[in-house]
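Q: What does the assembly look like in three dimensions?
Context provided by user:
Components: two
Sequences:
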Amino acid sequence: DTAVSQTPKYLVTQMGNDKSIKCEQNLGHDTMYWYKQDSKKFLKIMFSYNNKELIINETVPNRFSPKSPDKAHLNLHINSLELGDSAVYFCASSQVASTNTQYFGPGTRLTVL
Amino acid sequence: TQLLEQSPQFLSIQEGENLTVYCNSSSVFSSLQWYRQEPGEGPVLLVTVVTGGEVKKLKRLTFQFGDARKDSSLHITAAQPGDTGLYLCAGARGSARQLTFGSGTQLTVLP
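A: Here is the predicted structure of the complete assembly.
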């Protein structure tokens, strides 16, 4: 029944490591997103894919690389993790229309030590 | 600089009180959404307003879109502890797929 799912829920890792977060949606939506929510709860878009094609790429270090193998999946790979990468990362999906309602996953809390 | 500023940032009230949260911008939006986020979960859509001056009600929650489509408010009547959460407004511009989220209002309703 889960609409947008992410794994893992928690991720604790050392600085310098490489890690991936996976996202899947079963809503049949054509657009998927990655957001970063910082400690002040500000939600900032990182990437957006429409039908496996990158359409939004905000100012994000190139250590972050999204990959969309198909419309239902959007993964986020992070190289050489830094302390400042610690945050909650949310995946979302939408079927783009005039109002663009987004459905969010439960989030992945990344802690870099 | 935030494109969408929410106020207040934090709000703690007693059960039964009324409250209003504001979402302000100098930009015009084609639509504006309100989401609620609970701890450990992702934001969940409450409502979308599209027309300037539009008012929508969702039980004890009343949402209004400003006439100029630059601002919005959320009013909660007789708040309950279950209303506790982070309230986020988000604006869409034109046909852009991108939503711009507000700075958030953390609401705590004490029993």
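Follow-up: The CA atoms of residues 22 and 75 of chain A lie 4 Å apart.
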